[in-house]
Amino acid sequence: MLMTDKMGIIMGMANRFSIAYGIAENLRANGAEIVFTVASEYFKEKIKPIVEEDFGDSPIYICDVSSDGSIAETFQTIEKDRGKQDFIVHSIAFSDKNELKGKYIDTSRENFLNTMNISCFSFVEICKYSKIVLNEEGGSIMALSYYGSQKVFPNYNVMAVAKAALETSVMYAASDLGENNVRVNAISSGPIKTLAASGVGDFSKILEYNRHTAPLKRGVTLEDVGKAAIFLLSDLSSGITGEILYVDCGCNIMGMKLQEN
């Protein structure tokens, strides 16, 4: 029960296959109270039965991170309704799936900017306005990345660039927020079959390749990521900030092999 008496916000859970769900499940099992945010009324109705069944009375707020002022307004509402929070989890990413195939250099300007805005700049704004909702004593902010930010993965394209920007943002935000005792880190998970991953071409082949080549001879699970999140969001990692934690069963070895070949 490492998160007893802790409260926090999970942004971007889409269904029970989301990495955000695995994190929320482990947080709840360890005693945390959770607030969820989603992008629209559509997603709120979609996850409402899941939240009611698995997370009891956890509230759901709408926060369209692509809209100016939405993050600050949502944090103000949460602080008013639920009080100060101990952690924030950013599990938000988007890119046109039609452009996550073929050549990266064919990415359109519109999709490049939209991908960066939703997948990376939203995290920057969350960090900027975190002072509204986090405890004055400090807290923990966590993002989710992928090894495609470091090595070329087929059909990851502009999302890889957004994740690279996200990881750099983690370091700079950690530097900016350190004086407020706010730690900023990220988990880079191995490939998991999620709604977001389904938009990546040939993703099933990457999963299968990983199962055979990863040192642990299996793919990473939602539970694996959830347990790692408990570490980064709890007092166990009180001296860790600006870091990217790889939870991948050795999946990055696959990335290296793809690069070498």
Q: Number of helical segments?
A: 8
- CA radius of gyration: 17 Å
Series of H and E elements: EHEHEHEHEHEHHEH
Unreliably modeled segments: none
Count all strands and give the number: 7
Largest sheet: 7 strands, parallel
Order of strands across the main sheet: 3-2-1-4-5-6-7
Portion in strands: 5-15%
Query: Overall mean pLDDT score?
Result: 89
Q: Briefly note the structural class of the backbone.
A: alpha/beta
How far the N terminus sits from the C terminus, by CA atoms, comes to 45 Å
What sort of overall outline do the alpha carbons produce when their principal axes are compared? globular
Estimated helix fraction: 40-55%
What does this protein look like?
- The mean pLDDT is 89.
- A 7-stranded parallel beta sheet has the order 3-2-1-4-5-6-7, sandwiched between helices.
- It is an alpha/beta fold.
- The chain contains 8 helices and 7 strands.
Helix and strand topology:
Elements: E1 7-11, H1 19-29, E2 33-38, H2 41-54, E3 60-62, H3 70-82, E4 87-90, H4 109-133, E5 139-146, H5 157-177, E6 182-189, H6 203-213, H7 222-233, E7 244-247, H8 251-260
Parallel strand pairs: 1-2, 1-4, 2-3, 4-5, 5-6, 6-7
